[in-house]
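TASK: fixed-backbone design
INPUT:
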């Protein structure tokens, strides 16, 4: 397994998380829990599930279509 360095500016507000700023470990954890890391889904309303991601994405594109 290759080394994954820490990022300097992590968007996740959970600074107490052991994976904070460790992108590789964070992505692995979220893949295993079927959720998205905060940095990939900032407008999640606290729900990082894949289902909520698609719901928010659908709403975004529907509102863009109305413009």
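OUTPUT:
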């Amino acid at each position: 397994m290759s080394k994954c360095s820490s990022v300097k500016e992590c968007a996740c507000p959970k600074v107490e998380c052991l994976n904070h700023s460790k992108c590789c470990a964070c992505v692995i954890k979220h893949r295993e829990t079927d959720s998205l890391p905060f940095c990939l889904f900032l407008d999640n309303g606290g729900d990082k599930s894949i289902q909520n991601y698609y719901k928010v994405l659908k709403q975004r594109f529907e509102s863009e279509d109305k413009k």
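COMMENT: The two ends are 47 Å apart (CA to CA).
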